[in-house]
Design a protein that fits this description.
Elements (H helix, E strand, L loop, with lengths): L10 E5 L4 H8 L4 E5 L4 H7 L12 E6 L5 E6 L3 H22 L15 H11 L1 H7 L6 E7 L3 H14 L13 H10 L7
Parallel strand pairs: 1-2
Antiparallel strand pairs: 3-4, 3-5
Helix pairs in contact: 3-4, 3-5, 4-5
Length: about 200
């Protein structure tokens, strides 16, 4: 219907619903009805996407630091918390073996281990350099994300550059990186971490 005297009518925008929308449009007096398409399945699904929290994303280069200034730098395709948990399980294995060696009760659930204490301690140290470091540390080790990288080879390169640019307890220097990159990194100190 056309409003009398060519007056401007308010516009009413409604989602299209077959059959009902046409009736509303026909019977709308003093309203200009516009119909729009409803959202499709794709737009509904995309807005429903679950965002993974920043610390729970996999693929990181990380640093584990204790009370002194020296740190351990590593990389993992898992989350930082999962990798740190693996390190701490090795630390617990070492400390329990040390307690058994001294005749003290062990911490944690489970049946008594079958491996003799000295061998268990050696295996724990071999599994993670953090064990040796954490066993001499007065405070609990603290993990920190240095960099995020989902691609394995780039993550390994970043790890090597951070190891080379900082004082660490790492057993190796990571992958071999060209001296050109090393010189640039040293000049601009972009991989140097605060103490």
């Amino acid at each position: 219907p056309v409003p009398p005297n060519n007056q401007q009518c308010p516009v009413l925008v409604l989602p299209y619903y077959g059959g009902l929308s046409e009736k509303i449009r026909r019977h709308s007096l003093n309203f200009n009805v516009r119909l729009k398409s409803s959202s499709n399945l794709r737009s509904t699904m995309r807005s429903d996407k679950i965002k993974v929290p920043f610390d729970s994303r996999p693929g990181v280069v990380y640093e584990i630091k204790c009370s002194n200034a020296v740190a351990y730098i590593g990389e993992t395709g898992n989350t930082l918390f999962r990798r740190f948990d693996q390190h701490m399980k090795n630390v617990l294995t070492y400390k329990n073996a040390e307690r058994r060696l001294n005749g003290e009760p062990t911490i944690g659930p489970g049946r008594p281990p079958k491996i003799e204490p000295r061998k268990a301690m050696a295996n724990a140290i071999k599994a993670s350099v953090v064990v040796e470091y954490a066993s001499q540390c007065s405070l609990d080790p603290r993990p920190k994300i240095i960099s995020r990288e989902s691609l394995f080879h780039l993550r390994r390169i970043k790890e090597a550059l951070y190891i080379k640019s900082n004082s660490t307890i790492n057993r190796d220097n990571g992958v071999v990186v060209s001296e050109v990159w090393s010189a640039l990194i040293d000049k601009f100190q972009c991989c140097t971490l605060p103490s």
